[in-house]
Amino acid sequence: MASEDTKKIQEMKTDLNLLLECLKYQMDNPFSQKEALVTIHSICQQNSNAGVYFREIGGLMFIKNLAKSSEHSMVKEAALYTLGAVAEQSVYCQQTLCTSELFEDLTSFLTNNDSNTNLKRMTVYVILVLVSNNRSGQTLVRETGCITVLTQLFRTVLSKYELNLSDKNTFQSYQLWSSVCSTLCVCVNNPQNDENQMLCCSLFPHANDWLINCIKPEVIRPICSFIGLTLANNTYVQKYFISVGGLDVLSQVLVQLESDSHKTLSSAKLAVVVTKTVDACIADNPTFGIILSKYQIVSKLLTLLLHESLDSGEKFSIILTLGHCTEDCEENQYDLFKYNGLPLMIQALTESQNEELNKAATFVLHNCKKIAEKLSLSLGEYPFGENEEQLKYINTKEKNFEEYWKKAKELLHRLEHLERERNEEEIQREKDKDNVSSVNIDIQNTLKHLHADSLGRGPTAEDKDKSQSRKLQSYKSHGCANDHQMKTLLKSANPVDACYRESVQNKTLCKANSSYNQNLHGQTTFEEKNSVSQSSDHVFKHPIPIKNGKPQLPLTDPFTLCSDIIDEEAISFLATDNHPKMLKYRCSGCIAVGKSLNSRNFSKLLHCCPYQCDRHKVIVEAEDRYKNELRKSLLCNKKILLTPRRRQLRSESATSERIKKRRIRKNFTEEEINYLFNGVKKMGNHWNLILWSFPFQQGRKAVDLAHKYHKLTKRPKCVAP
Fold it and tell me: Could you tell me which residue ranges the Myb-like domain spans (predicted)?
């Protein structure tokens, strides 16, 4: 693959060298030169590196001089077209050609009366390529006066407002004018150039005349692009455009296109283009939105937003323009309410998954918040005047005005409700954190007191039970105690005392519970007490089986004897209406006692337990069935193994890897033997140096050379050459 690429690059270089020689030796044959230039253009289009190489061999400068010195118009056109294509493909070529000398030559081509329309078009194309994304090109196009010539062409190329593009001459003139518009766009923007914007704003009156007299896509699209880029991020130019009536003209065009959009799809698309230009005019000056209210642009934009043929990007442009219209203009905000704009914005928020579109709709709703508050208060606070007759006229003429107030109120309530929910969530999170931390502190203090009591330094058993019941009751009142915390608290107590004081503790717990809530939970407490006593009797009736005078599972902790009782007491105590009572019966497998359990002793523990829970009973039965099936299979086939032969598998895999990785044997040739002896004479027994210094066969290693040399020297007849 690499060899093919290298071959193609070499062929490309050879072709470019031959074509450059053809250009030099065919000066008297313009047709051959034109064909050579077209071929160079196609090669540079196919390979991006071709233009760089062509520049290195001097071809770029030769074509530039050829375009200047040639007397044939076809050669000049082809040379300029090739220069533009190469510069467009390579930034290095663009920087090489971006000189004041070339811009002056291009300006002379445009001002020369003998230059035909096609030559001027190729010249404008080269200017566009040199200026695009190039600040130095924007500076040179201004300093050399080239931009002044371009503005003159913008005014004079098209003389009639009625375009007949079927005519060949008119079509060529239109192509030149469109190229001039595109070139002026790159002169003022990307990157933005304030000085060029100031120069190009002189074309606004002429552009307004074209917009009024020729509402065609071929004219409106280039002019709107030029106006939008010239206005972008420049408040001075925006004010000048509005002062010459540009925003009024755009509003009139937008109204007409919106009315035509119901008939033709192209009018709707063209109306979106005009909308973007309007947005560029008022984006940095929202106060100028008052001009749009004279033409009821908000209602037109809302109607245009409902057009089915528009995509999400075009709808985003319309909603963003609505946001800038309503940002600082109460008239436009009122129109948004009047023409049911709020439901459309809410619908856009709920249905669309486009983040940018949702942000624009939120921007519109935020702008209308103040006017919604005013409308929701009373009609007397309407901001557009204090004339009572005018207010009565509005009230009588618009019967659905109250509906707008209701929508405004609903919108305000929604926004306030969302803010209130956020604040409540934050407050609740802080309270939960504080409650959890206070409960943890109380548990730690209780554990300390219980530990001191177990060492004989604490209060009496009866007092401790009362304090412990108070702690449990306080946890219940906080609503933050769970089963795990209650078990930890109870298990930390003295287990022997807990066993002997079971009845006293039950009474204390019941009293504490009844004192907290006598009427609501009295019956439940009584039932829970009975259930706890029954479960405790059940536990003590079935002791652990003994074999050979020793318990099969020694209990190292005396608390294990009473763990089930205390757990059930805690569960019964915590049982409320919100947290129903749940008795958890546990077998020996549910309690991890003694040494750590594994797959072997855990199975023995389950089999020795006479009273298994449902979960472990299913596990034991499944294990027994599996072992019985294995025993039957052993009787039928004694070769079966329960555990895999890991060592055998590893050895087999290792041998297979050795077989796969074994190298192919290659005999030493006479040349290699000579290399070997010469290397030993010069370098000694440094086998790696010998291997790297001589062209041995691929796959040879230093060990191979050493072995071969020792074998050769051991032979009695072998003599070093």
Answer: 664-715
Nearest to 452 by CA among 209, 491, 460: 460
Answer for the pair 20, 13: CB distance below 8 angstroms, yes or no. Answer: no
Burial-class residue 102 by CB neighbours within 10 Å (0-12, 13-18, 19+).
buried
- The answer, yes or no, to whether the previous bond of 191 is cis (omega within 30 of 0) is yes
For the chain, how big is the Rg over CA atoms in Å?
47
pLDDT in tens, 256-276: 999 988 888 889 999 999 999
Domains of the chain with bracketed CATH: 246-375 (1.25.10.10), 670-714 (1.10.10.60)
Q: Is the dihedral of CA 289, 292, 294, 299 positive or negative?
A: negative
Q: Residue 33 in contact with residue 27, Cβ under 8 Å?
A: yes
What does the angle CA 261 – CA 267 – CA 268 come to, to the nearest 5 degrees? 65
Sequence-ordered list of residues with C-beta below 8 angstroms from that of 679, at least 6 positions apart, any chain: 689, 690, 693, 694, 705
DSSP tally for the chain: helices H, then strands E: 38, 2
Contact predicate 361/349, CB 8 Å:
yes
Please give the Cα distance from 253 to 148 (Å, whole number). 28
Residue with structure tokens 């552009």? 207
Which contacts (CB < 8 Å, 24+ apart) does range 361-366 have? 361/319, 363/320, 363/323, 364/319, 364/322, 364/323, 364/326, 364/336, 365/411, 365/415
> What distance in Å separates the CA atoms of residue 515 and residue 509, rounded to the nearest whole number?
10
Which of 192-201, 355-364, 400-409, 612-621 is the least confident region? 400-409
700: amino acid identity, one letter:
R
> Helix H segments across 560-669?
563-574, 601-608, 614-636, 646-661
Q: Which candidate, 263, 166, 295, 152, places its Cα nearest to that of 218? A: 166
| 558 in Cβ contact with 496 (< 8 Å) | yes
- 561-602: pLDDT as tens digits: 444 544 554 455 444 444 444 444 467 677 655 556 777 677
Give Cβ neighbours of residue 398 (< 8 Å, ≥ 6 apart): 338
Spatial contact of 283 and 228, defined as CB atoms under 8 Å apart? no
464 vs 454: CA distance, rounded Å:
11
Question: What would the two tokens of residue 451 be?
Answer: 């530990």
